[in-house]
Amino acid sequence: MTRPGRSTEIRKKNGHFEARFVAMGSPCEVLLESDSESNAAAVAGSVSTEAWRIEDKFSRYLPDNIVHRINNSGGAPVEVDDETANLIDFAATLYEMSDGRFDITSGVLREAWNFDGSDNVPADSEVDRILERVGWSKVKWNRPELILTAGMQIDLGGIAKEYAVDKAASEAAAETDDACLVNFGGDLVATKAPTRSKGWQVGIDALDQAQGLPQKLIRLQNGGLATSGDARRFLLKDGIRYSHILDPTTGWPVRNAPRSITVAADTCTQAGMLATLAMLEGQGAETFLADQDCKYWCYR
Amino acid sequence: MSRKKSKSVAATLTTATCALLGTTSTTPVNAQEEDEWELDTALLYYNEDGNRVQDISFKMLANRNFIDDRVLSLSLGVDSLTGATPIGAIPFAGPQTFTSPSGNQVRTAPPGEIPLDPSFLDTRVALTANWQQPLGRLSSFNAGLSASSEYDYLHLGANFKLSRDFNKRNTTVSLGLAFAADELDPVGGAPTPLTPMLDVDDLSNRMGNQNKDVMDVVLGVSQIINQNLIMQFNYSFSSSDGYLNDPYKIVSLVDPVTGDPVPRIPTPGVDGPSHEYRFESRPGERTKHSLFGQAKYYMNGKVLDASYRYMTDDWDIDSHTVDVRFRWPIGDRSYLEPHFRYYTQTHANFYRTSLDSSLPLPPHASADYRLGEFDAITLGLKYGWKTESGNEWSARLEAYSADGSVPANLLIGSNQGGLEMYPDLDAIIAQFSYSFGW
Fold first, then answer.
1. Which of A128, A157, A169, A291 is the Cys-Cys partner for A182 at CB 3.0 to 4.6 Å?
2. Do A14 and B136 count as a contact with CB atoms less than 8 A apart?
3. Local structure of B321: helix, strand or coil
4. B32 falls within a domain
5. Contact call for residues B373 and B254 (beta carbons, < 8 A)
6. pLDDT tops 90 at residue A239
7. Is B4 within a domain?
8. Is B26 in CB contact (< 8 Å) with chain A?
9. Is A211's pLDDT higher than 70?
10. How does pLDDT run across B27-64, given as a tens digit for each residue?
11. Contact A224/A269 with Cβ under 8 angstroms?
């Protein structure tokens, strides 16, 4: 099924091909170091197809997918396919690793929190009421069967984009030997280094977008890079800035979370999860990242 | 999460990610932060033996990296030169008096010594700006401007370079062009070539400002032979025309029998030269060709860098330069690098240590030791170390020794054979460098 707005633009730029499309609510691009436009079109095709497939399957906004079936199961068991089960297993591992702070059932907290830059901070009572419907420990997961208490929801949005980047990049690598960079809204993977330079140049956006210039330039030869944090999504009340990173164990935003964390790791998924887990550490984000022995850029 | 637990996160995550993506292993990530600005700074001290030239110079190179591999390079150099330099006159058993370049006073050189001009004092400021960017996938383009200024010299230049990769990027071919328009404004005015050095305050043989234009073309090929060996070959062509003299250099007029400088009597009541000297005269054009070959050999962190250059020009100067450096790592962060350089050149066809006063003057003559026949050896040692943050310090100490000889057929008369006609040169060079980025 083709949804509206699903088209890919390809153009030649500075000696490589650049394909652009929109998936998962983000601008996506594929850069390919190639002389052949048909090769570029084939790679762009397999990358965008994979991105849209994952979006269709796991978006919580769409009415006809596995996430929708789970969220509307009314407490009945749902049997899931292998790929969904793999994602749920992964989420369960993260829940355990993070002492419950990475939780795919925490999406309902958005009913109380709307990070629009306003001072609209919810009341304790409202948050507590919603928290009753949050908690992976309340879910019965017995692969491949999932039983979600009525009123609870899962949201794989915190994993799906990074997962899609890795999956799409491996599709690209299967399609071509040329160096390729897959970038979905700032989460990206380089399959290998371009031959013409030391690596793909990636800019980490300045927090103040008005500055225009990237804050840091990173040379990525291969591997993944992902960023957590969004300078524009916050609430401000009584001089306290509430970041959009919610701690599902309290229902409140993580205190003293950095504004933005970018991590480099072997895969985009690892990079993204490390960035998210570090955000959840709040004040301890840098200490956590330093312990992981990974390259990171943390801005407060 | 506890500190202890947090340390195990990365490993657990790797296992979980492999299970999720259905992979068994991944290529380790390779990402480096690129500094927006990279700065190289160097402080150099150069000192010639025998109170000759001393130079203290500071150099700074700033590279600004932009997206899409575009780089802006800016450099600044400041030199402060002091000391004395040989003026070309031969040594003589008696004192010799010269009019200073400004023409308003005289200076006397002691007997038996190679006469030096002690008024050498200069500050030079040089600036360059360069822009480099890729042109498509295989080519890159480089363009720059340069300017330097000292009290009697102004240089303006422009350069361009195109390079293109071939053969799966194992071969790079480049073509460079450079143009310079220089203006000389010597103290007291540029002397008319071959005219006599005159009495104090007589500037009748001085001309105004003079110009010199230089064009350089460099054709280069660099070739990756294998993982360990890179070779580079260049052919360069350089053409200069205009005023190519050193306005402060003179040649002694000598007696054909004794070889001693011909005495001269200044106008009564006025100071002036004690002997007959002629301002030097070089051809108004010079064409150079040079071939350069370099091999860089990498072996387990050690790097051998050896190069050879052959230069020939239409002044009949041929030169050979051999340069060898060997980088020897000490631990992970530092290295030692010995340096050896050997240089030899033949003299220009108009090189004369003195001129026979009984013969008509030749069209061109210069006693500048830099146009003579000489060999030079440089021996040096550099020590470099990297700080934890990746900044690099280095210290370099080098000794330079040039040893010249004047061919017997250029000696005139009976007395020159026993004199030291060529000003040999020994110098030391010390340099501290610091490179950093942010």
1. A169
2. yes
3. strand
4. no
5. no
6. no
7. no
8. yes
9. no
10. 788 888 777 788 999 999 999 998 899 999 999 999 99
11. yes
Tell me the CATH number at B101.
Answer: 2.40.160.40
Token output for B107: 């200076």
Nearest residue in chain B measured CA to CA from A269: B17
Nearest to B1 among A98, A217, A295 (CB): A98
Domains of chain A: 1-60+158-192 (3.10.520.10), 65-155 (1.10.3980.10), 198-300 (3.10.520.10)
What pLDDT shows up at residue B120?
Answer: 67
Residues 168-207 of A with CB under 8 A from B: 170, 193, 195-199, 201, 203
What's the Cα-to-Cα distance from B320 to each of B286, B310, B344, B408, rounded to whole Å?
Answer: 18, 5, 5, 23
Domain membership flag for residue B23: no
In a domain, B31, yes or no: no
- Give residue A205's pLDDT band: very low, low, confident or very high (50, 70, 90): low
Residue A180: name the closest of A42, A34, A53, A38 by CA.
A34
Q: What is the pLDDT of residues B201-210, one digit of tens each?
A: 999 999 989 9
Range of the structural domain that residue B295 is part of: 38-437
Q: Residues B6, B11, B12, B14: is their CA dihedral positive or negative?
A: positive
Nearest CB neighbour to A99, from listed B1, B3, B29: B1
Q: Which of B21, B36, B168 sits opposite A166 (nearest CB)?
A: B21
Q: How many domains are contained in chain B?
A: 1
In chain B, which residues have their Cβ closer than 8 Å to the Cβ of A94?
13, 16
What average pLDDT does this structure show over A16-24?
Answer: 90
* Predicted confidence (pLDDT) at residue A212 exceeds the cutoff of 50: no
Question: CA-CA distance, A237 to A257, in Å (whole number)?
Answer: 16
Give the chain B residue whose CA is nearest to the CA of A280: B1
Q: In whole angstroms, give the CA distance from residue A32 to residue A120.
A: 44
Q: Average pLDDT of A111-137? A: 83
The predicted model gives A123-144 an average pLDDT of 88
